[in-house]
Here is the input.
Amino acid sequence: MKFSPADIEQIQREGLSVARVEEQLALFQRGVSHIELHRPCRTGDGIEVISPEAGERLTYRCELAAAAGRCLKFVPASGAASRMFKDWFQGLEDPWREGDPAAAAFAANLPRYPFYEDLRLVMARQGDDPDTCLREKRYDALLSSILTPHGLGYGYLPKALVKFHHYPDGSRTALEEHLVEAALYATDNRRISRLHITISPEYRLAVTDFLRETCPRYEGIFSVTYDIAVSCQETATNTIAVDMDNRPFRTEDERLYFRPGGHGTLLKNLNDIDGDIIILKNIDNVAPDHLKEVTVRYKKILAGLLLERQEESFRYLQCLRAEHVDAETIAAADRFCREKLHITFPDDYHRWSPEKKKAVQLRKLARPMRVCGVVRNEGEPGGGPFWVRDDDGGRSLQIVEEIQVDPHSESQQAIWRAASHFNPVDLVCGIRDYRGEKYDLRRFVNPRTVSIAKKSEKGRDLQALELPGLWNGSMADWNTIFVEVPIATFNPVKTIADLLRPQHLWQRNNGGQ
Here is the structure.
């Protein structure tokens, strides 16, 4: 691939080298390697179910840790809203014709969206109104007022700033819903609520301005003070995008198009946090208030379980680090690893010497820990919990995305299809060791788990190279615990139509007009 002088200058401004970009292009041509699934996780086989009695105990543990200031909410919020509106962008660029099903659905549903009143206000400034446009079927005027900067500008905003839910006193953005959640489970005994939000650099000013204007309202409602850090993905972790023929994707002005290299690039942001117990949840997975109670309860249960298992793990680590360790301690540590952390060892492990067993136990225990909520598979897209074959002959619990599974292997595809649960990106992470020192999270990444994903930009399809996913390859060597959580805790918004699901429209359906 020969780059022009303007291309080279752009590549260097990204913090990349031509050689690095050529390596990325070669990956698209060559394809990526796949992981080897052993079996899907099931309840009782890699997935734990928490009893009501245990839930009460774990909730209390979380509340004690939160009161001590140990809990922080981490929200990956780099996603652009443009991908939510892919179909509407296509309708703007190729206007819908009479009888088009997309036009009929748009016209029937537009007033139900939580940003409809905002649309009315912005169109009024232009001497127009959405009701008239709908009657006259002027869909281009409506789409333009929703998507472009002369209107709401939703096609150019981060997903964090799109209105998701309607309430009697107004509508809330996705980011506001996360502020509410943080107040409910990440607040200490001084009423300080801690969040860390990651965004793309181009949205930093818009997000920080929004927080400055919005936080005082929720601080008043919940009697908290927000301690919010905002960080950006570094452009040096960006990757070049290609079209469907593996040629560099170019924007309308013929510039190369670089994308953030997936959520795996956020590992550096997570690694830089001066935190302890990190409650991680995607920007687009938020529930309206009628589902907050179950959401908060299970967040606390997941955090409490992490704290409990972490404490046990630290105790065994200290015992195993002693100069003389008896066979009984090694056997007890072995049972803990297998039964509580779901760690498996190579097939010939039973023949190993006590010293060799102790060494591998120490390595397995001295790792970051995560507890992941998983929900029953009801057809939602996304990764799932699996037992995966490791290089050392053992098996480990991993969150696996479909893109990581060999599409040409019927046996691997059969295992993938047999999954009973999937991962809603509902994690609680322990990132400090038994001495209270932070792990260097870069040491626990599987660098081979890059992937190629189909994405879009302003309605045009492209292929994107994604670095090891934050909760996939970037956490491949963490100790992992899967816990079944109710489907009510998972309310994703990947496309604009998802906001019409009953759980997101409940407030309007129950009189919140």
About this structure: Residues 86-156 form one domain. The longest strand covers residues 192-199.
